[in-house]
């Protein structure tokens, strides 16, 4: 299926070119191992993901989606968070079901003993945090000025700030295929 998707993408066939691009990226991210892409076929949404190679040392770099990855025309999106008309977080519907796979893998990896923090969280570094019974990818902003055991974090896939204690923070898998933030910010125009 990957070769069919690549062929359709390279030839620019059909109106679903953007969907095919996202699907192509999704397949490449899903099927990996230490030796490169696997030969496994595309997984249906009900299947579990292949085993992940987990390495919890080193920093994980997570970057925003490139502006070129966001459609310039009308598209469907899910509202994730809104603090007001100038602070709205959205996620493209075309990314589904990738966020579900990412959250499932994140929850699985955070249960591993090696994911436990050895040191205090560092501002600017990426971690996982258990927030409202769900593991979220976060970036540590700073230590709390009131509670020295708590840290202000930014939920990079939701677009909101939250305070957490260090005992609910985990290191991220350095081998994760999920290297992009899955949301973008917008505001209501006048």
Automatic annotation (TrEMBL):
Residues annotated as domain Tudor: 119-177
Pfam (any one): TUDOR
Cited InterPro entries: Tudor
Coiled-coil stretches: none
Name of the protein this chain belongs to: Tudor domain-containing protein
């Amino acid at each position: 299926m990957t070769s069919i998707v690549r062929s359709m993408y390279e030839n620019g066939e059909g109106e679903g070119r953007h969907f095919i691009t996202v699907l192509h990226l999704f397949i490449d991210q899903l099927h990996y191992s230490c030796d490169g892409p696997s030969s496994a076929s595309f997984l249906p949404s009900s299947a579990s993901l292949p085993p992940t190679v987990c390495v919890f040392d080193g920093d994980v770099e997570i970057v925003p989606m490139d502006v070129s990855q966001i459609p310039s025309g009308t598209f469907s999106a899910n509202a994730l968070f809104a603090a007001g008309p100038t602070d709205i977080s959205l996620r493209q519907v075309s990314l589904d079901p990738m966020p579900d796979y990412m959250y499932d893998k994140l929850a699985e990896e955070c249960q591993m003993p090696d994911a436990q923090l050895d040191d205090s969280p560092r501002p600017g570094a990426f971690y996982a945090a258990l927030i409202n019974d769900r593991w979220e990818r976060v970036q540590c902003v700073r230590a709390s000025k009131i509670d020295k055991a708590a840290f202000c974090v930014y939920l990079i896939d939701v677009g909101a700030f939250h305070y957490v204690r260090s005992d609910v923070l985990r290191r991220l898998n350095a081998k994760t295929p999920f290297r992009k933030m899955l949301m973008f910010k917008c505001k209501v125009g006048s």
